[in-house]
Amino acid sequence: MSHRIKTTLRGRAALISLFVLFLIMIVWQLATTQQGQVPHGQMTPEQIEYAKLMGQPIPGADPGEPRHDGFPTPSQFLAVSANNLAHPFYDRGLNDKGIGIQLGWSLLRVAGGYLLAMALAVPFGFLIGMSPVLYRAFDPFIQLLKPISPLAWMPIALYTIRDASTSAIFVIFICSVWPMLLNTAFGVANVRRDWLNVARTLEVGPMRKAFRIVLPAAAPTIVTGMRISMGIAWLVIVAAEMLVGGTGIGYFVWNQWNNLSLPNVIFAVLMIGVVGMVLDMVFAYLQRRVTYVE
Predict the structure, then answer these.
(1) Alpha carbon distances (Å) from 85 to 69, 161, 260
(2) Which pTM does this prediction carry?
(3) In the structure, what pLDDT confidence band is assigned to residue 293 with cuts at 50, 70 and 90?
């Protein structure tokens, strides 16, 4: 496919994406803004109290006031987003930190657990991929532990480690290790026999064969496992931080919900998606770099 055709396709895809975004904003605006007066007597006391807690005007209390159900309009959401992005690193205490600080804590925990998982999974996966006997010996343990939800380990981690932040790192480790381990073992075990036979014919040593033949051939599959692990780790850290509290984007979401600040909750959800997309793009680029195209 020529460069000109690729550029044309990317341009068309960008236009479609912008059109879809425009439709989403229109539907959002129509769904959250209904002009008209609502008689005050039609609201229950619970609805009035909820409107006050949400910081929203009571429908019908002021004639001509736009009616909405508490969900932020696009303009309200954009105002909150601009304010958060304008001051991302402020720190006013435990429950009042900028979005940049919260994302930084989450990324730090993900990096810690992920690097520990990679340090274990890639060498061990390489080892069992090279040895069918070891693969069969350890496969029952892997299949037993792999389906367990990472959050199920949280009570055990909190009891044994007795530190919330370290427990979150352990949860990231335990959820990241299995995709990397299995993909590494699969990639190593499925290296083309022709290449291994040539190495055997040339009497290539085990270490040289591992690093010059097996590792480059299995690299795309290994990076695929690393990419899957990163996606799972970023999913899990949000839920883990909701449980352990303190800092992090998951705690930020939960804290803003407790404050009934729905625009901040939506903003945090969007930031989680953006960061996850960037992380996936990094591994997608790495995957393309290590993939051999004949």
Answers:
(1) 26, 35, 20
(2) 0.81
(3) low
